[in-house]
Structure formats: C-alpha cells, structure tokens
C-alpha cells in the first residue's frame, strides 16, 4: 500500500503528517510506504490513499485515490482514526 | 528515512530573539510581517522570505492554519533562507487567516528550511507540543518570551535546571 501526504511545498505539513502516519503504521503493525507530495508535482503520481489538510480538498477533486482530509494536523488521534478507517475500507 | 544526524535541535532553531509573547496585530499580513521581522533581524532569513511566506498563503490557500488557532507559515529554501529557523508569536487577539474551520489564529509560527530534512525533527517536536492540551495551555498563557519558548522546547514547560535557580 502507498499513502501520500500532500501540502503546498513538501517541506512542512506533508513531512509532519508523514512522520505521524509512519508512527501510527508502526504501532498498528501495518506495512505501507508513506510519500510526501507537494501541489506543484503531485499530478500524475499514484497512491492508494492521499492524506491532506481540509482546505486542500479542491485540489483533490479529480483524484482517483482515497482522499483523507485532516482538520487538526497536530491531533494524532484524528490522524490515526481517519487514516486507519481509510486503510480498513480499502482492505474491504 | 530521516537521518537523525542531520537533525537540528529545536533550541537552535527557536532562538530567544525569534520568540515574542502577547503581540497585538490587526491582520494575518501584519502577523506574518511581525514574525518575519524577527527572523530577518536575527539574520536567519532575507527580507524577501517574508513576502514569500505571504505569497504562499495567497497562492495556495490557508491550509497552513494546521490546527485550531495555529498557523505555520513558511516558503521555500530558495526564497531566502540563510539558516534553518523558527519564529513564534502569540497574539493578544486572534486574527482571521481565512481558514474554513481553524480560524481565528492566536499562535503564529514561521519556519525557514534549508533542505528537505534537517528541520523536520524540530517541526515534529513543535507539532507534538501543539497536540498536547497541557502544553497548549502553557503556550497560550505564557506572559514572557522565555516562558513561551520553554513551553515548546521542554515537554514539561520548565527551563532546564529551573529548580536550582
């Protein structure tokens, strides 16, 4: 499984989310690759799940990935619940 | 993977001269100018970086309001970062950044990175403090710059060796 974290430039928010999600995956024993994306270069790239800040929804309208929007990016519980829900829904 | 040897500790990025508690501003632009000025005066970024941070918000939207009441401003290394740095303000009155859910903002952070990785461990520490309700209480109630700074640097908010002081 491939999980992408999206932000504007790929330096801040997406890296922060990547670290949080890697920690969650480790704790849950789930194997997945987490890659940071930025708005300038993510088009045409591929992931099963894209995790992004709420206000980036409009950039993901045409995405074929499962989109997870996070309101509070420092709330590990919100990130955990939302990401695990998306992973489980993909695993059927 | 992130190479820990590249990690710049938070106390080296968040300097005493780049932290100010209880600042009054009347707009997000003024908040960005004020925190940007701290970084310019400390020799951490060039003047144009401040404009860069504002341009990011105008062009990419207010997603940089990463949590309720918390903005994390930044631009790119090539926009004028001289040294990896973090600036921080708390506001006496919260201002609107235009976010759909997390406005208004009273904790304003700004960082400058020189590459993709070396600032990340510090950024993670900042995020962990902001995710800790007790630490956020200390941050919002800090009356002095140093108390505010220590609320980020130390998990318990106490300066090192404070008992001996």
Give an overview in words.
- The complex is a heterodimer of chains A (92) and B (165).
- Chain A has 92 residues and is α/β, with parallel strands linked by helices.
- In chain A, 34% of the residues lie in helices and 24% in strands.
- Chain A has helices at 13-28, 76-90, and strands spanning 2-7, 33-38, 49-53, 66-70.
- Chain A has a four-stranded parallel sheet with strand order 2-1-3-4, covered by helices on one side.
- In chain A, strand 1, helix 1 and strand 2 form a beta-alpha-beta unit.
- Chain A is globular, with a radius of gyration of 12 Å.
- Chain B has 165 residues and is α/β, with parallel strands linked by helices.
- The radius of gyration of chain B is 15 Å and the shape is globular.
- Chain B has helices at 10-13, 28-41, 47-60, 120-130, 133-141, 145-153; strands at 19-23, 70-74, 85-95, 105-112.
- In chain B, 37% of the residues lie in helices and 18% in strands.
- In chain B, 45% of the residues are buried.
- Chain B has six helices and four strands, in the order αβααβββααα.
Q: In brief, what are we looking at here?
A:
The complex is a heterodimer of chains A (92) and B (165). With 92 residues, chain A is an alpha/beta fold. Helices cover 34% and strands 24% of the residues of chain A.
Helix content of chain A: 25-40%
Number of strands of chain B: 4
Evaluate the radius of gyration of chain A: 12 Å
SSE topology string of chain B: HEHHEEEHHH
| Rg value of chain B | 15 Å
Seen as an oligomer or otherwise, the chain set is heterodimer
Average of the residue pLDDT scores of chain A: 94
Could you tell me the mean pLDDT of chain B? 92
Structural class of chain A: alpha/beta
- Terminal CA distance of chain A reads 14 Å
The fraction of residues assigned to DSSP E strands of chain A is 15-25%
Counted by DSSP, the helix tally of chain B is 6
The amount of beta strand of chain B, in percent, is 15-25%
* SSE series of chain A: EHEEEH
Gross morphology of chain A is: globular
Give the strand order, joined by hyphens, for the main sheet of chain A.
2-1-3-4
Estimated helix fraction of chain B: 25-40%
Number of helices of chain A: 2
For the secondary structure, the number of strands of chain A is 4
- What can be said about the biggest beta sheet of chain B? 4 strands, mixed
Shape of chain B: globular
